[in-house]
């Protein structure tokens, strides 16, 4: 007798609940739309004086006077190179030319190959872990790129060995 009872399908049950919710939202949209149609709205705007004063209607508040244009505010910017601030007399020779700075050169080269710091570390974490829907994790993309590089490097090596073999055996 228990097998004759119809089982409830959770997918169709959820679909039915969502359809009821959609119907309720559509009826609410229609009700709000009819309320919006009752409110009078101005349909035309004067283009004779676009930036001038406008005439206020009886049911509208008077517009505020235009604000005076203010000058932009600039903030102090740090110079790109810190040589002006950190330069000392012992860094220059007797002719006034800057001495060769080997540790500074190594620091500049090292900083050139470093990645810049990120503005949004949470986004980087999401991308690395694959937390963004529709995007593969960064580790997967790195692995694909690494395997592709190894494959093409091995192919290039094989082609070079074949050319070398042909050159050696033809002499």
Can you characterise this structure?
It is a single chain. With 171 residues, the protein is mainly alpha-helical. 51% of the residues lie in helices and 0% in strands. The protein contains five helices and no strands. The protein has helices at residues 10-38, 83-86, 102-113, 121-129, 138-170. The protein is flat.
Short description:
The chain is mainly alpha-helical. The protein is built from five helices and no strands.
How many β-strand runs?
0
Shape: flat
Beta fraction = under 5%
Order of helices and strands: HHHHH
Number of helices: 5
How does the helix and strand content classify structurally?
Answer: mainly alpha
Based on CA atoms alone, the radius of gyration comes out at 36 Å
Q: Helicity range of the residues?
A: 40-55%
Largest sheet features: none
What is the topological layout?
Blueprint: H1 10-38, H2 83-86, H3 102-113, H4 121-129, H5 138-170
């Amino acid at each position: 007798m228990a097998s004759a009872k119809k089982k409830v399908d959770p997918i169709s049950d959820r679909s039915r609940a969502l359809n009821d919710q959609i119907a309720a939202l559509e009826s609410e949209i229609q009700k709000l739309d009819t309320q919006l149609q009752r409110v009078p709205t101005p349909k035309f705007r004067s283009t004779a004086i676009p930036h001038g004063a406008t005439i206020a209607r009886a049911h509208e508040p008077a517009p505020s006077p235009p604000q005076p244009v203010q000058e932009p505010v600039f903030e102090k910017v740090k110079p790109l190179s810190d040589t002006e601030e950190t330069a000392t007399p012992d860094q220059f020779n007797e002719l006034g030319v800057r001495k060769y700075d080997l540790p500074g050169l190594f620091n500049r080269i090292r900083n050139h190959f470093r990645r810049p710091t990120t503005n949004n570390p949470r986004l980087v974490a999401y991308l690395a872990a694959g937390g963004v829907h529709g995007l593969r994790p960064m580790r997967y993309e790195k692995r694909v790129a690494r395997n592709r590089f190894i494959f093409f490097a091995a192919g290039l090596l094989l082609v070079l060995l074949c050319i070398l073999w042909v050159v050696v055996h033809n002499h």
